[in-house]
Amino acid sequence: MRRWREKIRSSTPLHVVGLAEMLAIFGLVASLIYLLSFFGIAFVQSIVSSSDDEEEVDFLVAPPPPPPAAPAQCSLLGSHDAAQERMPEEDEEIVSSVVAGKVPSYVLETKLGDCRRAAGIRREAVRRITGRQIEGLPLDGFDYASILGQCCELPVGYVQLPVGIAGPLLLDGQRFYVPMATTEGCLVASTNRGCKAIAESGGAVSVVLRDGMTRAPVARLPTARRAAELKAFLEDPVNFDTLSMVFNGSSRFARLQGVQCAIAGRNLYMRFSCCTGDAMGMNMVSKGVQNVLDCLQDDFPDMDVISISGNFCSDKKPAAVNWIEGRGKSVVCEAVIKEDVVKKVLKTNVQSLVELNVIKNLAGSAVAGALGGFNAHASNIVTAIFIATGQDPAQNVESSQCITMLEAVNDGRDLHISVTMPSIEVGTIGGGTQLASQAACLDLLGVKGANRESPGSNARLLATVVAGGVLAGELSLLSALAAGQLVKSHMKYNRSSKDMSKVVS
After folding, report:
1. Residues 86 and 194 in one domain
2. What is the pTM of this model?
3. Is 211 among the catalytic positions?
4. What is residue 23's predicted lDDT score, i.e. its pLDDT?
């Protein structure tokens, strides 16, 4: 521009361009081209590529058809992806009816005749009602027909639990590998260590003291005197044969053992006890009791039965009557642990264990006002074995009542340990014992099903295994406490070092 102004002043024609001016013009054009390519090339390329894609779409082969839809049962898995799949129209209508409350969820199995399909539809209805995917709860891989009418109602899936094996437990001359279903770290490992100490010392011995399930109905009489008359009638040995005949007619295995009564005002509590074969026996004893109550109405028409269970049984509640009188199987299990095993396997000494047991399990529990809780952790082992073998986990309450005793024997060198458990309630038939996983665990112990040759012996054997497992667990935990290893062990087995975010992803 400066040069053009000078040309105008000197009257020089503008179209006359010198070498310097030509270089300047060339540099200007080159700069403009560079700037355009630097800032605009990406934009131009995106427009061009987009245009090319649109043009090519018309010439592409049509995409292949989507894969065929999965069967109806697989569209209800409960996962996020499965929830997005379209359900069969018929199932969709049923789900909508359940959500709307037009079809009760509990009739699905009967209405559809397919337990798996019913569980899937119920699960989808729950998902829509709650807005929760419940992705981690598996649905497939379980036989829902096997629980119909006996184990669980309104199923939407099943819970997975790891099962560990402790053993061999050398008990009464036999070796048992004890299945334990638990989510607590250290439990199986600790029980396994106790089994090792018992085995290296020659094994444990058990005795079944009593075997009888109880049910205690409560009836109200017009007066306390009338209640006392019924109490006397039931407890009179002269009437026992008649009562037994009526009671035993309810089952080929039920055998009445006795009736114990208690009065509160004009209310009479009647605690019937009977053997129940290899079944845990709650239903069996309840049927027998109902037969007796019906018969008693003839002689005591003024008896008003309030409930078939009056809590004097006592089921699934801590009660002194079970601790004193027993319920289910009453078992004592004992072993003598050699001095060198105490030192080598248990890492402690006899005197420390004896002292700890007195101060902790006996005096400490007394200070706490414990009822049948004079032990270190019997319920841990009982519950783990119960879940693995299909027992009723709620009966852990009374089944875990236990007193653990430790004494120094053989001039103080060796350790005598025993557990006394008056109310272990187990069975090898009925309830959850017939489920595939639980039946496999019972089979591992050699107590699956009913014993045809000696009815009740399988259930009694299972009770002794439970007591033997508790003996091993008590021995190991008390040793860990005496040696100061409890915290160290739990930090090792209960505190995973895995990066769980990576595991989940």
Report:
1. no
2. 0.81
3. no
4. 73
